Amino acid sequence: MSTTQSERLRELLEPLVSSKELDLEEIEVASVGRKRVLRVVIDSDDGVDLDQIAEISRELSEKLDESDAMGDGEYTLEVGSPGAERPLTEHRHYLRAVGRLVKFQLTEGGELIARILDVDDEGVDLEVPGVKGRKPTARRLAFDEIAKARVEVEFNRKDKKEEEA
Beta-carbon neighbour count of residue 130 at 10 Å? Predict the structure, then answer.
């Protein structure tokens, strides 16, 4: 049984990332011209800031230098967070998106844009925005009804603290 380079890298790097109470979300090795780029995406329930990214980047670099996981050739290490329009692929992603507007591609076809209100083991409770002055409506989606889900960027959304004031 052979393992891919990404699997070997995950086995090498995930314990270090987990020790910092972070999640290793994605590993990608790509060729950019003659150089290789190792992209590592990390996250946590509280998100990650630039200081955490810089610290984990240094530590991952040291760990990679100690191993031969990337081989002898040159490569660039890029460490970052999932970004604003992250896809929701794991249960923890849905939990982190509570309160956020999400675009759902449904397994039965069609799409739905709604705000996640709550998440449990079976699915999500949503608030579907009203159209043309109508009030929002509640809807429940089971996880098996969701083909894809991605957080939508909201430029005009008030912060929860502003709404409570």
Answer: 10
pTM as predicted? 0.71
Q: What confidence tens digit (pLDDT) does each residue in 53-87 have?
A: 999 999 999 999 898 888 777 899 999 988 777 88
Instruction: State the Cα angle at 85 between 83 and 78, rounded to 5°.
Output: 25
Task: Tell which residue, 52, 51, 49, 67, has the closest CA to residue 17.
Answer: 52
Is residue 82 a contact partner of residue 41, using CB atoms and an 8 Å limit? yes
- Condensed to tens digits (0 to 9), the pLDDT of residues 133-159 reads 889 999 999 999 999 999 998 877 655
**Among candidates 102, 109, 107, 89, which has minimal Cα distance to 41?**
89
- Alpha carbons within 13 angstroms on the beta-carbon side of residue 93 total 20
In 3-state terms, what secondary structure has residue 76?
strand
Q: Could you give the CA distance from residue 22 to residue 44 in angstroms, rounded to a whole number?
A: 5
Residues whose CB is less than 8 angstroms from the CB of residue 13 and which lie 6 or more positions away in sequence, other chains included? 24, 27, 40, 60, 63, 64
Q: What is the DSSP letter of 1?
A: -
Tokens 């844009």, residue?
113
